[in-house]
UniProtKB/TrEMBL annotation:
CDD domains: Aldose_epim_lacX. GO terms for molecular function: carbohydrate binding; isomerase activity. Gene3D superfamilies: 2.70.98.10. GO terms for biological process: carbohydrate metabolic process. This is Aldose 1-epimerase. Pfam families: Aldose_epim (PF01263).
Length: 296
């Protein structure tokens, strides 16, 4: 059933994942504090972005000479995944192509998500496989977890920063109507630190094309910080809906279509191109740490 979910935990954390979208809907620490956005002005929690990230022109993609409808962030977040494994400390879910998916996206695929808890926090891994024996799979894949902001009691949102592993100086993507118009948006990171406030997101997400970092710390000037790390993904998006109390940390392999791109889908910048029988892996992790020091 689409509403079916699996709750798992250990001594430090409890998590809940639903079959619908293979979505992480809750992550609580040992005190019961919720770290994942539970819904409101933005109704999702941690959607899976596949087979596109962001938008394509007019929600249409030309594939093998035929026109296909692909809406923002793709269809995986609205499909029911199959449970492959459920345990006390994790779960594995699988989505494969079928007649419904092929009406939107005519490629064979197998997408596997694995969730696991250990003493450091939650670990999420992605395995995208092309099971076709002849054709190449062209696709993007991304994560979109939304974390509660603020998550330390008696702190304000403006008390929080992102402290990156390394200095981040490169300009960011500029979006118009969901499409990338250029890579000239000024980067608000000062050295390794980004002071957070709603105004940063008035022009949509902060999109880092090739971040130097592969981990960061999200925290206030006191209390626990949230250590977030990723691997395999090339891009990073940071987003929130102004006025809402969450922050999305989004590792991506791919990004929205450039506004100037009008070619066939398989030539779209940012795609993975998986040959028959090959796979691609990536993942992210999140867990609480004491203080705001980001170790190297």
């Amino acid at each position: 059933m689409a509403s079916e979910s699996h709750t798992f935990g250990n001594e430090g954390y409890t998590a809940r994942v639903t079959a619908l979208g293979a979505e992480l809907c809750s992550l609580r620490d040992r005190t019961g504090r919720e770290l994942i956005w539970t819904g409101g002005a933005w109704p999702r929690h941690s959607p899976v972005l596949f087979p596109i990230i962001g938008r394509v022109h007019d929600n249409h993609a030309l594939i093998d000479g035929l026109d296909y409808t692909l809406t923002q962030h793709g269809f995986a977040r609205d499909r029911v995944f199959r449970w492959a494994e459920r345990s006390e400390t994790g779960c594995t879910l699988v989505l494969e192509d079928d007649p419904t998916s092929r009406a939107l996206f005519p490629f064979a695929f197998r997408l596997t998500l694995r969730y696991a808890l250990d003493e450091t926090g939650l670990h999420v891994s992605y395995d995208l496989t092309n099971p076709d024996t002849r054709g190449t799979l062209h696709a993007s894949l991304g994560a979109h977890p939304a974390f509660v902001w603020p998550f330390v009691p008696d702190t304000a949102k403006t008390d929080y920063i992102l402290r990156f592993e390394k200095e981040e100086h490169a300009p960011l993507a500029r979006l118009e109507a969901g499409l990338i118009v250029d890579w000239s948006r000024p980067n608000p990171v000062k050295g390794r630190e980004l002071a957070l406030n709603d105004g940063l997101f008035e022009e949509d997400a902060l999109i880092f094309m090739h971040p130097q970092s592969r981990k960061l710390l999200f925290g206030a000037d006191r209390g626990d910080g949230l250590a977030f790390a990723w691997h395999g993904f090339e891009q990073l998006g940071v987003w929130m809906k102004p006025g809402s109390d969450f922050l999305c940390l989004e590792p991506w392999q791919g990004y929205a279509s450039p506004a100037a791109f009008t070619g066939p889908f398989e030539e779209k910048p940012g795609l993975l191109h998986l040959a028959p029988g090959t796979s691609w892996q990536a993942g992210w992790s999140a867990g609480l740490v004491a203080g705001k020091t980001l170790s190297s």
